[in-house]
């Protein structure tokens, strides 16, 4: 029990440290920090890890919810931090459902929310603007959901996954999600 409490306090302290270093502000609507491309880069730069993973999630997106355990497992299996980035607006009623989905998967999950001031409109428009902004030129910009975004400890985006990374495999099959991660994300974490 002591170990669990220490781990929780370390996780909270780490997120608090990132908030302080990067100037992250909590949303006025929910009790989680809001982010944009620059603050995500800052979080990765201030990490002691080789790489940091940011996983996008919308409450109504079936693949997002289905792949969430795989995203969170990366933190346990590799020397990385994983942040779940909620794409619904801070004041959208669906954001509460998204938070509940993440908390059911892991009480210790690090949750971030896209800033309303930067990403305006409905969830698809917000996600599209974020994906366009975060995706480097060497990757195809596809504004789908359930993205694994990997940044190195210099704050540079080194991977943005999309549905094409699944190629011929069934995206709904958990084993196939592991196959996709093994050839896109996991090599960057080792």
TrEMBL record:
Keywords: Isomerase. The keyword Isomerase applies. GO terms for molecular function: isomerase activity. The keyword Isomerase applies. This is Thiol-disulfide isomerase/thioredoxin.
């Amino acid at each position: 029990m002591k170990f669990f409490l220490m781990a929780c306090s370390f996780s909270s302290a780490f997120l608090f440290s990132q908030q302080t270093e990067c100037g992250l502000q909590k949303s006025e609507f929910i009790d989680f920090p809001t982010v944009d491309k620059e603050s995500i880069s800052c979080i990765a730069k201030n990490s002691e890890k080789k790489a940091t993973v940011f996983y996008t999630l919308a409450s109504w997106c079936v693949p997002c919810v289905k792949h969430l355990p795989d995203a969170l497992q990366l933190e346990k299996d590799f020397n990385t931090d994983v942040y779940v980035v909620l794409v619904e607006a801070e004041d959208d009623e669906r954001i509460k459902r998204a938070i509940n989905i993440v908390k059911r998967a892991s009480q210790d999950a690090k949750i971030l929310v896209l800033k309303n001031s930067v990403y305006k409109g409905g969830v698809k428009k917000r996600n599209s603007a974020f994906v366009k902004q975060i995706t480097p030129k060497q990757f195809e910009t596809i504004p789908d959901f359930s993205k694994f975004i990997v940044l190195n400890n210099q704050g540079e985006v080194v991977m943005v996954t999309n549905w094409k990374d699944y190629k011929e495999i069934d995206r709904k099959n958990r084993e196939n999600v592991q196959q996709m991660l093994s050839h896109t994300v996991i090599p960057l974490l080792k």
